[in-house]
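step=encode ok
step=design start
structure_in=
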């Protein structure tokens, strides 16, 4: 049974989920966190549904083994492919990033024309169109895969002529569709927010799913009576696990988390 003093578990295919950790720390500073980045098997964004469901299940089992009270699937690809399976098979609260992003986009849009950008797998999964039509069957959704954005964010090319050129090309169909709310449907995209905003123009609301899922997690903890008793007070522990050597993750962590992640250990999730 989940208990309030336990940690929130978060998993991602790699490092990008630290954008969700950053928002959780900001919103819920007293909550202990356990993060798993599946760095040995990243990227998920070009893999099949079956593979992503298998990896995601192993990640959930690993986090449950660490006694977490709730799981946040920070990875959009994993949320798109695996969330229905995970919520069916596990009784702990498990939140994904798709629904909170869609809710915020529909609330922000005046025209009902919204856009989403993500990995090839996320766009191909049909998860966003399904979530939009469940909430507002009249809304029009335009999707675009932007696979190079992941690499540009990891390279730190967040304010670069090359990035601007690529963004103009990827975002052209969204501009053409005249969307007025755009969901950043991938863990890495919040890092490119200023270039994306520049290309889309000031009238388009950019929806950061990391912020939205952190808000959702805050609401669900409250609703279930699972908010940490020392909320806002005690120093909360944060542990980071990766499935490949931790050096690369530690070095890049500053870019995604705003500071270097300490306390990073290597694990083999397939052994749980
Ligand atoms: N974390 C992935 C996502 O949000 C991006 C990286 C990958 O392809 O694994 O979809």
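sequence_out=
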């Amino acid at each position: 049974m989940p208990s309030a003093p336990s940690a929130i578990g978060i998993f991602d295919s790699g490092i990008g989920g630290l954008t969700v950790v950053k928002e959780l720390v900001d919103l819920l500073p007293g909550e202990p966190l356990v993060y798993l980045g599946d760095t040995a098997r990243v990227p998920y964004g070009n893999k099949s549904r079956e593979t992503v469901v298998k990896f995601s299940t192993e990640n959930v089992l690993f986090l449950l083994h660490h006694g977490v009270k709730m799981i946040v699937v920070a990875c959009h690809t994993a949320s798109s492919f695996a969330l229905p399976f995970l919520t069916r098979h596990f009784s702990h609260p498990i939140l994904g990033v798709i629904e909170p992003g869609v809710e915020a986009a529909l609330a922000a849009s005046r025209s009902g024309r919204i856009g989403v950008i993500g990995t090839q797998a996320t766009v191909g999964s049909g998860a966003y169109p399904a979530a939009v039509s469940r909430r507002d069957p009249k809304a029009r959704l335009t999707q675009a895969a932007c696979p190079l954005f992941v690499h540009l964010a990891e390279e730190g090319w967040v304010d670069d002529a090359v990035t601007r050129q690529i963004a103009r090309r990827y975002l052209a169909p969204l501009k053409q569709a005249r969307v007025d709310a755009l969901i950043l449907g991938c863990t890495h995209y919040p890092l490119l927010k200023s270039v994306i905003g520049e290309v889309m123009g000031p009238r388009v609301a950019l929806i950061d799913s990391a912020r939205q899922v952190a808000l959702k997690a805050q609401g669900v903890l409250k609703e279930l009576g699972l908010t940490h008793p020392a909320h806002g007070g005690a120093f909360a522990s944060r542990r980071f696990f990766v499935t490949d050597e931790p050096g690369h993750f530690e070095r890049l962590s500053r870019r995604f988390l705003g500071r270097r992640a300490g306390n990073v250990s290597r694990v083999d999730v397939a052994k749980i």
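step=design ok
step=annotate ok -> The first helix runs from residue 18 to 27.
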